[in-house]
Structure prediction request, 274 residues.
Amino acid sequence: MNEFLPSRYVEIIHRLALGIEPIDAQCRRRLSYAIQLKYDVEQLGLPRPEIDRHISNLFSLRYRPGVTTPVDIRAFDLSENRYDPKYDRRRMVPRRLRIPILSLTDVENQESIDRQQFRRRIRRPVFFPGAAYNFSFTSTGLRGRVLRNNKPMRWARVVARLAGQALVVGRAHGDDRGEFFLLINANAVTGSSFPDPFTLDVAVSGPTVVPVPNPPNQADLDPLWDLPLETLSAPGAADPVAAGETLPATYGATTTQTITFTLGRCIYREFVIP
Prediction:
């Protein structure tokens, strides 16, 4: 029995299982960079339902055999369809995400009540500036490098707050070289006069336990092997993980510096995680 058309027609229905709109953390709108989005782990020899990329930089996964929940994906900024560091354009920092999706039965039941329920199937993960991010030279920011055991610490998380306060005025994600690019938002200067210079507490976090590759050549096989896999909230719920505001569960090592900023200038600092 057809759902929408008279029975004399052959009806084929494609339903959205997961829609992804990547968001630029700095401008809070759709990411303009044409990123790659793939399954996190490919099943050797087994075809998987394709994640379609649209020219508008949107991604979609339709309900088909093989679609299960959750869906593990990785997103990265490359000019090719495979992950190789020499192709990394470094305009945004990669993320690995575990995304719960609704069952087809739930979707069909909800559509009979409210056609707008498809909005619950759309996710908007936030991506943070990489070293080559295109920014205004009048921006206020901090380029930083994170070290641990005298080596670059990969995939740091950075939060800037007004000195001695809880108000967050900037976030950043570190990359595989231990580098991050923190841009300060307008909340850092409020009121009728602009304090210049001004001070911020910049906290840098990393894994409690240093990840160890297994096998030893894992980094050669998968350059994103130690990038934390973050689980998003249930469909339709508030999602601080997608927004990049929640530290990964394995992160517990933190160091903080109080840094003086000057409006319209980008400075450099190094941080050491014990």
In short: The chain has two domains: 16-127, 141-209+250-272. Residues 67 and 250 are 28 Å apart (CA to CA).
